[in-house]
């Protein structure tokens, strides 16, 4: 039997076509199998909401002065520790920014709204302020100030270390929840009102603390 000089070429082309067909079929099967695998879901405490709209390309820019006044009187200092790992009560992500300040430093409503008391093992004594665009949460207070209807700048509490901060540095754990949703990073908003803010005199210290 004599082979045409084109025989080996035809056989090679046919083998290549068969190989491509098999690979494509296997890829389709694998894609279907992957699609049927359950997706890994982070627990709620580890899910950090994205930053305010507009921080990514193409978004609508959210105003940086949603807060009208700095929530803590000076002296204070803070860094952006939003999203840092925490282990008290089990692993979770930090949902706010800790504003470090001496015990008894006044905490103020950052905008007009309604202030409501909070109490829990983790946050200790705290206070919510509900405003038109969302709410803030202040935790680890030593005592409360004004509750109910408040104006921006009203004294709503005092810095402490209650709750799971007991024995640690005194600070205000500050959270921002736009539109009543999950906490988002408030660092940029704090910078807009706290950098260069005037220092107000602290009230006389008191001994009645909440732990």
Main β-sheet, in a few words? 8 strands, antiparallel
Distance between the termini: 98 Å
Pairing-aware structural class of the strands and helices? alpha+beta
User: Helix fraction?
Assistant: 10-25%
What is the rounded Rg? 28 Å
| Helical segment count | 2
Tell me which CATH architecture applies here: Distorted Sandwich
What does this entry look like structurally?
The protein is α+β, with helices and mostly antiparallel strands and 211 residues long. It has a single domain, classed as Glucose Permease (Domain IIA). It is built from two helices and ten strands; from the N terminus they run αββββββββββα. The strands form two sheets. Strands 3, 4, 5, 6, 7, 8, 9 and 10 form an eight-stranded antiparallel β-sheet that branches. The chain has a two-stranded antiparallel ribbon with strand order 1-2. A hairpin with a 5-residue loop joins β1 and β2.
Features of the shown structure:
single chain; 211 residues; alpha+beta; Glucose Permease (Domain IIA); 8-stranded antiparallel beta sheet; two-stranded antiparallel sheet; 2 helices; 10 strands; elongated; disordered C terminus
